Amino acid sequence: MKFFTLLSIFLLSSISYSQADTIRIKELLTVLTKTPKPRNYQNIDQLNLCADFIFNDFQEYADTVFYQSYQVRGLTYKNVIARFNQKEAKKLVIGAHYDVCGNQEGADDNASGIVGLLELARLLKGKSVNKCIELVAYTLEEPPYFRTEYMGSFVHAKSLKDSNTELVGMVCLEMIGYFNEAKRTQDYPIGFLKLFYGSRGNYITVVNKFGKGKGSRKFTKKMDYFTQLPVKKFNGPKSLTGIDFSDHLNYWKMGFSACMVTDTAFYRNKNYHQKTDEMGTLNISKMAQVIDGIFLSILA
C-alpha cells in the first residue's frame, strides 16, 4: 500500500482497532429517532432541538463548534460544524444530514450518518492529524429542498469555494447502518453489476463519480485497507441513478473531490423513506466497524 508511510502504519498500530462504542451508538440513535415529532423541514422546532443536541455533543470533543445559519422563505435553518486541528490550512470535511423525509424516524436515513459524525468527534479528541478536520451536520438534504441551493450542504460547499478553502476532500455519510447476509438482498442500478458485487447486502460502499479527484481516491483506498467489514468501491457516471443522492453532490458542483460512504440506501434497505426505517432494523456492530474504518482512514 504505497500511499501509506511507515510512520502512519506505526502510529495506527498503537491504536486499539475496535474504537466505536456500540452502547453510545444505541443511545445516540435513540435520542435522534425517538423525537416528539419527525425531524423534517416542516417541524423547524424539532430540527432546532436536534441541531442543539448535535452542537452540545460536539462541544464535548471538538476544538470549536458553531452554527452556520441561513434563511429559507423567512425561516432560519442551520448546519452544525465542529473543527479539529483548525490551525491547519488543508481541510477534510466529513458530513451527514440530520433531517428526514416525511413523517418517519429515519434511523438509517440518516440518524446513522449523524451518529457516525458524533462518534468520530469523540474518537478524534486529542488525536494528532496533519489537516483540519471539519465535521458538518447538514439540514435540508431531503425533499422538497433536495437538489436546490437551500440544501445545507450547498450552503456549506459554496462557503468553502467562496473563501478559497484548500479542501483535500469531502466524505458524505449517507445511511451506514443496514446490512443483510442473506442472498438476493442487494440490488443495483444496472442488473449485471450483481455479477461483480454479489447479491448479499453485507458490505459498505464508497461511491465516487468518474474523475473524482485525488482526495477521494486516497480515502477510498484507506477505507478498503482499514475496515473490518467488506468495502466495495463503486465508480460511475454522475447520471447513474443514486450516485449523487446525497450531500456530496454539492461539493462536486463546486469542483471539490468528494465521495459517499453508504450501505447503498434503497438498493438494499427497503425501509428507505418509510415509517419502517426504525432503529431495530440496524446492525449496530457493523455500523461500528464502518465508523472505525472512517476514523482510521482519517488518521492515516
Short key terms for the protein model shown above:
globular, Aminopeptidase, eight-stranded mixed beta sheet, alpha/beta, 300 residues, single chain, 9 helices
Can you describe this structure in just a few lines?
By secondary structure, the chain is an alpha/beta fold.
Structure description:
There is one protein chain. This protein has a single domain, classed as 3-Layer(aba) Sandwich (Aminopeptidase), CATH 3.40.630.10. Strands 1-2-4-3-5-8-6-7 form an eight-stranded mixed sheet, sandwiched between helices. With 300 residues, it is α/β, with parallel strands linked by helices. The protein is 35% helix and 20% strand. The protein has nine helices and eight strands. Helix 2 crosses helix 4 and helix 7 packs across helix 9. The radius of gyration is 18 Å and the shape is globular. Keywords: Signal. This is Peptidase M28. One of its GO terms (molecular function) is metalloexopeptidase activity.
